[in-house]
Design goal:
Strand order of the largest sheet: 2-1-5-4-3
Distance between the termini: 58 Å
Bound molecules: adenosine-5'-triphosphate, magnesium ion
Order of helices and strands: HHEEHHHEEEHHEHEEHEEHHEE
Number of helices: 11
Number of domains: 3
Shape: elongated
Oligomer: single chain
CATH architecture of the largest domain: 2-Layer Sandwich
Strand content: 15-25%
Helix content: 40-55%
CATH superfamily of the largest domain: Histidine kinase-like ATPase, C-terminal domain
CATH topology of the largest domain: Heat Shock Protein 90
């Protein structure tokens, strides 16, 4: 196309009116095609020059940014955009010449529509000639993700419910047997030995306690969490927690080493739940270090995340059970419920975080939790009120 115009320009003075008209028609046809392609796109595109004036835009951009399509005033891009937050963002990033990929915003003027904005420099002959701003409506994408999460939650709930049923069977069976024994004891004898009956009743009491614990933990695991995420200094939360735990740690003969990163960005957490999760991890570590050892707690920043790393020098976890430890009711302890790590997992997921584990038998275990660093503009769809 460009070559064709170049050639036409060179021969312009030798052309007659008809030939020039043909060329103009051809160019306007090409232009219309380009316009048609741009306007058929669902994504919004705008091209601006070095002074941030609009050179070209498509209908989707105008629709999403709600500016008048007919006349674009000769002003900087951000002053014609109808969303204050996006306008301020574009102004800052364009002036600082930053390349931006997929920054998410919730549109101020419509309910819960999420827009992803990218800024790319327009380069010609190795020089930046302006910028291209691309916007995409990612609302459906995000709600698809939310639906997927819900389906996963449902699957997890089914596993959990199956686990509960299984767990309840044993104490119920034992209660049944002991009730029969009591009946037999009463039925066969004229003088009842209260000592024997008391022994059976003690067992029944214990089993009822166990049932109660199973039900309480189950309810805690399935109930939607009322997490209230607030921006907080994770280091401070850790200091509070380990201050509270210092006597218990001393008593168990475990050395605590805390290495907190300086100037750690704040993250969105619910202190109550995070402390609960960490307590569960510490409890497991202490159990694994009954002959003493060290508990090392570190915080770090890694890219867009804050890492919390908890290492113990305990017994370690055998390879063959490493991928089961987060499953509901998985335990290797006589009196464990096996819900400790399930709850940790659920709490970390509620915080949009990830948890991974590395362990070596006989050497120890490391849990690494990563929390996303919030971008004020990045508001994900609210998942509140969903089970598990
Ligand atoms: N730090 C650790 N070191 C060694 N083994 C561990 C550690 N953390 C977890 N485990 C293993 O993972 C299993 C599951 O842990 P989880 O906390 O879910 O349940 P639990 O501790 O057995 O019972 P509870 O519900 O009382 O916490 C444990 O039984 C143990 O075998
Ligand atoms: Mg535990």
């Amino acid at each position: 196309m460009r070559k064709f115009i170049q050639k036409a320009l060179e021969k312009l003075n030798k052309m007659d009116k008809e030939q020039i008209k043909n060329i103009l028609c051809h160019i306007s046809g090409e232009n219309e095609l380009l316009e048609m392609v741009l306007n058929s796109m669902t994504d919004g595109v705008v091209v601006i020059d070095q002074q941030y004036r609009v050179l070209l835009y498509n209908k989707s951009f105008a629709r999403m940014m709600l500016f008048n399509q007919e006349e674009i005033p000769d002003e900087e891009l951000w002053s014609i955009i109808n969303d204050e937050e996006i306008a301020a963002f574009l102004k800052e990033k364009l002036i600082n010449q930053e390349k931006i990929i997929d920054k998410e915003f919730t549109l101020e003027n419509s309910i819960n529509r999420i827009i992803s904005v990218s800024i790319m420099p327009l380069v010609k002959e190795k020089k930046v000639q302006g910028n291209l701003v691309h916007i995409e409506d990612v609302t459906e994408k995000r709600s698809r993700e939310a639906r997927l999460r819900r389906a996963e939650s449902l699957a997890a709930l089914t596993t959990l419910a199956a686990g509960v049923a299984h767990e309840i069977k044993n104490p119920l069976g034992s209660i049944g047997i002991h009730l029969q024994l009591i009946q037999k004891e009463i039925g066969n004898r004229e003088v009842i030995k209260s000592e024997t009956i008391r022994k059976y009743l003690d067992v029944i009491n214990e089993e009822v306690d166990r049932l109660n614990r199973i039900v309480v933990d189950f309810l805690f695991a399935v109930r939607p969490m009322d997490t209230k995420l607030e921006e907080q200094d994770l280091n401070q939360v850790l200091k509070d927690l380990f201050n509270f735990l210092q006597y218990e740690l001393k008593e168990s003969g475990v050395k605590l080493k805390v290495k907190l990163a300086e100037q750690l960005p704040k993250i969105k957490i619910d202190e109550k739940y995070i402390k609960q999760a960490l307590l569960n991890l510490v409890k497991n570590s202490l159990y694994a270090m009954q002959d003493g050892g060290s508990l090392i707690v570190r915080t770090e920043r890694a890219g867009g995340a804050v890492l919390l790393i908890i290492t113990d020098t305990g017994t370690g976890i055998p390879d063959e059970i490493l991928d089961k430890i987060f499953e509901p009711y998985f335990t290797t302890k006589d009196f464990g419920t096996g819900l400790g790590l399930t709850l940790v997992y659920k709490i970390i997921k509620e915080h949009m975080g990830e948890i991974t584990v590395k362990s070596k038998e006989g050497e120890g275990t490391t849990f690494t939790i990563s929390f996303p660093i919030p971008q004020k503009e990045k508001r994900l769809i609210d998942y509140k009120g969903e089970a598990v």
